[in-house]
Write a structure and sequence with these properties.
Number of strands: 2
Strand order of the largest sheet: 1-2
Distance between the termini: 50 Å
Structural class: alpha+beta
Order of helices and strands: EEH
Largest sheet: 2 strands, antiparallel
Number of helices: 1
Number of domains: 1
Helix content: 10-25%
Radius of gyration: 20 Å
Oligomer: single chain
């Protein structure tokens, strides 16, 4: 069985239902990661950059009724 999950700290959050495994069952997990989804942390935006992005987002709706 192969399922997807997300690592958060020392926990792995499983993204699919595991209904066929009873609670309390000991399992072994073979961990692999998807290399193209690992990104470098982005530096925080300055206030002016944040405002520019918000204005760009709000501008999408300017011609809508």
């Amino acid at each position: 069985m192969k399922v997807r999950g997300i690592k958060r700290g020392q926990n792995i959050e499983i993204l699919e239902e595991l209904n066929n495994i009873p609670d309390g069952t000991e399992i072994i997990i073979d961990v692999e990661f998807i290399a193209n989804q690992i990104t470098e942390p982005q530096p925080p935006l300055t206030d002016s950059e944040r405002l520019a992005r918000l204005n760009q987002l709000f501008g999408v709706w300017k011609n809508q009724p």
